[in-house]
Amino acid sequence: MDKGAVGLVVRNGKIVYYKSFGVDDANKNTALQKDAIFRIASQTKAITSTAVMILFEEGKFLLDDPISKYIPSFAKPNVLSTFNEKDSSYTTVPAKREITIRDLLTHTSGIDYAQIGSPKMKAIYAKAGIQAGFSDHKQLLADAINKLGTLPLVQNPGERFTYSLSIDVLGRLVEVVSGLSLDVFLRQRIFKPLGMEDTYFNLPVNKQSRLVQVYTEDKETSKPVLWKDDTFPGSTINYPINNNGYYAGGAGLVSTIKDYAIFLQMYLNGGEYNGHRILSRHTVEIVTKNQIGEIPFGDDKFGLGFQITTEKGNAKLGLSEGSFSWGGFFATSYWADPKEKISGLLFLQQWPFKHSELSDKFKVLVYQALQ
Amino acid sequence: MKVKFLKLLPLFVFIQQVTFAQSLPLQNDDAATNGFSPDRLKRIDQVIKSYVDSNWIKVQ
What we know:
The structure holds 2 protein chains of 2 kinds.
Chain A: E1 4-11, E2 14-25, E3 30-31, E4 38-39, H1 44-57, E5 78-84, E6 89-94, H2 101-105, H3 119-128, H4 141-148, H5 166-178, H6 182-194, E7 215-217, E8 224-226, E9 254-255, H7 257-268, E10 272-273, E11 276-277, H8 281-287, E12 301-302, E13 307-308, H9 311-317, E14 324-328, E15 332-337, E16 342-347, H10 358-368
Antiparallel strand pairs in A: 1-2, 1-16, 2-3, 4-9, 5-6, 7-8, 10-11, 12-13, 13-14, 14-15, 15-16
Helix pairs in contact in A: 1-5, 1-6
Chain B: H1 2-21, E1 27-28, H2 38-53
């Protein structure tokens, strides 16, 4: 046994299932604890998107403002036209329009992903030193995002859904508009009021022993082995403890399953938790409705930071229409169902992980247990 | 009038508890009280345990 998992189910604001299984560190044979701290990676995105909506509610910007109004390097964007694989050089054509904040929230900006995106854009980003957020060296978010603004887009803004570094850009927007680092803003405006006491970019020393080991697959035997840092050049699995100063709004946070359940409960409560209002009910409605129109996104749609279950998506696993969900690179996943007042979270710590396998079965098992 | 109010007081308290329950801190509660079959919830244990006990990263 080389793996562990924690599962949590909430209904009506009450925890009805909360269990851990397996091991954290197979070499030491230590049992995985329920309060273990996980690299939640892309689950950071919904939190950063919430920070954006907090500032939106303060009238700091409109969602259809061009991002270049706040981060000038994104002005007059260009779209990739030709690409030379030998040296990653390229030509561009002017984009049809500017990128808006809404484009960024819905991954329709035309920005791609470093390290996990399309081969051409991965090469362009690597050459420019742009990372997905697991940086092995000191880097300022401002510098990386300013540089990203000068690089080509893979498509015109608003054309289609491309999973991307867009939320990292929004993390920088939060910094520019609030005058605070993303780390400080999230702590002051989300984590502290909600009581999310174990959610960090940089994990304090006294909590580092709770950080879960990450497993990957041995290329020859396909057996689980501890993560090796050469999996993605320029990145390290120790990013939560190396204090590199890079606050990746799209991937950088670590958290516990209970902290994240609190965050989801705030949304299920219409923007409030334990007497602290983070967002208005109306903004929660905006965030959790289809924001991409007819743009294809599998059987579902996308809101402002969350996948949104459609009628077609409901037919697959039984999640109610309007449920919102996502997951993280290292095999964490969650959903929240406003109609049934349920949230479900399943956290593992490994890569690769096919999210449609265990996490989908978990959803099925939760719904089949309803009376 | 005062007597009527006192009679209705428990109802007011109940409505308030239901209304604000979801804004309280997350706490453990009985699965059955919240609409789940405890026996059927145990199926989750079996499936997760089977996965973590398998010596594979991908589901085989």
